[in-house]
Design brief:
The chain is α/β, with parallel strands linked by helices and 319 residues long. The protein has 2 domains: 2-133 and 282-318, Medium-chain alcohol dehydrogenases, catalytic domain (Quinone Oxidoreductase, Chain A, domain 1), CATH 3.90.180; 138-258, Rossmann fold. It is 29% helix and 27% strand. Strand 1 and strand 2 (10-15) form a beta hairpin. The longest helix has 14 residues, at 135-148. It is globular and about 55 Å long.
């Protein structure tokens, strides 16, 4: 079958054996669960995918944002984690050193087929297309973060970062009954925010500010927008380290909360909540998915995803 990997010559579509089960390391962590093979419908290119290309060639198939179908045609999203039963029961997957990511430590979804744990299957609400379901992973990151800060209706929220993560988190905050403004760097990002009914002229002070850009300038702007004794939610990935505007954080006595990936609580999985939000917000997928490429054109897809100024928000590969 076809699979997308980072090779000596860059992003390449290669021919690999079709999976019949999870790899041995994943199955061992799951107490022998061999998993299930699904047919991929969509795989989103994440900013983390772009960054990890800089780590050099890897024998692992890329892709952790996955929409797929089961053998019986059921449309699903994939929670792309391999974790131990203990971590699974705790609901806080990120807190466990046993948790690894499909598309990073195990073959991912930029392929015709991918093997995933049975626990990773997230059945989609009626009407939600698997071609759009790669967005569920991104939304789930935002859902998790907003839950960690206990966001309630009526709060004033600003999101710094107009990429897919920022826009998905902003949409999740709006769905909770909040007034939400987005700070974006590129015109297509602001146009997408307006299409989603979000504000684009951030001004004044906010109860919650989400930093979803992962940059020093984004963090500085987020602190500026946060009211005294407000909350700063860190969702961006600071690959090059974090430069904290320390005096402003201290002087305003901000509460800082960091959140990564997703989990589960008494209400259920963040992934299920994210799938429900995507289904309830039909304008989300067309606003965010700016490019779709067939799998054979994966190198061009990665080039498009890296060019945010040209309008890319979420680039999707469709086998």
């Amino acid at each position: 079958m076809r699979a997308v990997r980072n090779t000596e010559t860059g992003v390449t579509v290669v021919d690999v054996p079709a999976p019949t089960a999870l790899d041995d390391a994943a199955a061992a962590r799951l107490s022998g669960d061999a998993g299930v093979v699904v047919r991929v419908s969509s795989a989103g290119i994440c900013g983390s995918d772009l960054h990890m290309l800089g780590f050099g060639p890897s024998p692992v198939t890329l892709g952790h944002e996955i929409g797929a179908v089961l053998d019986d045609g059921t449309a699903v999203a994939i929670e792309p984690l391999v974790t131990s039963p203990v971590a699974d029961r705790s609901g806080s997957y990120a807190a466990s050193p046993d948790t690894t990511v499909i598309g990073v430590a195990h073959d991912g979804g930029m392929a015709d087929l991918v093997a995933v744990p049975n626990r990773s299957i997230v059945r989609l609400p009626s009407g939600l297309r698997p071609e759009d379901a790669c967005l569920v992973e991104v939304i789930a990151v935002g859902v998790r973060g907003l839950s960690r800060v206990g966001l309630q209706a009526g709060r004033r929220v600003a999101v710094v970062g107009g990429g897919a993560l920022g826009l998905c988190t902003a949409a999740a905050a709006r769905a909770r009954g909040c007034d939400v403004d987005v700070v974006g760097r590129h015109a297509p990002q602001l146009a997408a925010a307006e299409r989603l009914g979000l504000g684009t002229a951030a001004a004044g002070e906010y109860d919650l500010v989400v930093e979803a850009a992962g940059t020093a300038s984004g963090l500085e702007r987020a602190v500026e927008l946060c009211r005294r004794e407000g909350t700063l939610l860190l969702l961006g990935v600071y690959w090059d380290g974090m430069v904290m505007p320390g005096f402003a954080v201290l002087e305003r006595q901000l509460t800082m909360v960091a959140s990564v990936i997703y989990g589960r609580n008494a209400a259920g999985r963040d992934f299920d909540a994210a799938a429900a939000l995507l289904a309830a917000t039909p304008e989300l997928a067309p606003a965010l998915i700016t490019h779709r490429f067939p799998l054979d054109e994966a190198p061009s897809a990665f080039e498009a995803a890296a060019d945010r100024a040209a309008g890319a928000i979420k680039v999707v590969i469709e086998p």
